[in-house]
Amino acid sequence: MNYRDTMNINAAGHLQIGGADCVELAEKYGTPLYVMDEEYIRSVCRAFKSTIEETYGSGNMAYASKAFSCKAIYNVMKEEGACIDVVSGGEIFTAASVGFDMGKAFFHGNNKTDGELELAMRAGVGTIVVDASDDAERIDAFARRFGKVQDVLVRVNPGVEAHTHSYIQTAKVDSKFGFSVKSGAATEAIKDVLSRKNLRFTGLHCHIGSQIFDRSAFALAVDVMTDYIAQLGALGISVDTLDLGGGFGVHYTEEDPKYNVKEYCEYVSLLTRTLCDCVERKGIKKPYFVIEPGRAVVGEAGITLYTVGAVKDIPGVRKYVAIDGGMTDNIRPALYEAKYEAVLANRAAEEAQEVVTIAGKCCESGDIIIKDIALPRAKRGDLLAVFTTGAYCYSMASNYNRNAVPPVVFVRGGKSGYAIRPQTYEDIARLDEIPQTE
Ligand code: LLP
Questions:
Q1: Which of 248, 276, 284, 407 has an alpha carbon within 20 to 30 A of 434's alpha carbon?
Q2: Is 126 in the pocket of ligand 1 (CB under 6 A)?
Q3: Alpha-carbon gap, residue 227 to 216, rounded angstroms
Q4: Does ligand 1 have an atom closer than 6 angstroms to the CB of 63?
Q5: Is 45 one of the catalytic residues?
Q6: Intervals of CATH 2.40.37.10 along the chain
Q7: Ligand 1 centre and the CA of 212: distance in Å?
Q8: Cβ-Cβ contacts under 8 Å for 231 (sequence gap 6 or more)
Q9: Per-residue pLDDT for 45 more than 90?
Q10: Structure pTM?
């Protein structure tokens, strides 16, 4: 079970996170409820940042805000001195609205709209990542209109693809992201950038996958990318920044390693050591180093609290324990067959007695949050805590069945407060109109 440093069972037998009793949180805020441990988020940020500074020198982490985006998280990143990765006008708008220094933002996307590029210019986004054949032309035109020279990275596809515990090296060109290094498309894209007056080519970006524990995949990406930097050097093209993307894995179930903050430091220092070694061996200029973790920063910081409702026992087949949320607040099991662990937060010290399936409340058979989990005998009114829901759950939530998206509270040192207030039915229906079509 994923009891991290800041999660434990208190004397009442209740799950506690960041010093706050989950039963009290549920009473105060209702369920379903996303709870994020702010101290854990900050400690992972500090670990990534300080490891880069101490083991490499010039670089930073850019929090990939697609994992969890709201004003409170951009405010944390502002206070921690981190950069951010944004991928839409909505993320740019939200970050800028809390006074985040947008000079420290990297704007990604395989199809940035005109409206988004305009917003990026107005907000002063520091770096835009070129990731489409006409990106350079379009960004250059916007920069000219705004009377500026825009820093850009070029996203390349290094042909390294990583998954949780393995990686493959491919010459795969079939991806909607990035310019292939192998095919020569990347070099063409860079030359295109260099030919434009209102763009400044600052370096390269790649992203090899998500939920990666195989460190050799990252090491290989560093090797391929520095080979490419050396190749570009021979063409007289200088690379100032190397952004290796995100992908650091988190613990969902016993199938995954369980890293503490110190182990994330070791993970990152392996990358910086590999990079230092490659820089020296290949005689290239030491680039400014960026990584873009999303899931690792917020994933394990979050839990979701639900109230148990109907229990349906089909003897000899399966016992369903239904909760007051489901695929609307966590689409990942339905979408990716993602696996989770959970406990009864109000009876956290009790031994498991039976294996059940946790069913969501949506009108869809696939709305199953956990298949086959051992729990104490759950009954209506019990409180279920699902672990590691901080990344890609709130950010991918929906109003399917017109269910409200649950609120998010941050906890820290026993105190709690809303990061995102509850959505009401009025909120859900607020933009609805009866069209006058006659
Ligand atoms: N940088 C780039 C360019 C990315 O495309 C991504 C993730 C990241 C950074 C952050 O990756 P992370 O450190 O969070 O693994 N919805 C999926 C995950 C999609 C990730 C897409 N890109 C999920 O729920 O697993």
A1: 407
A2: no
A3: 16
A4: no
A5: no
A6: 7-30+302-429
A7: 11
A8: none
A9: yes
A10: 0.97
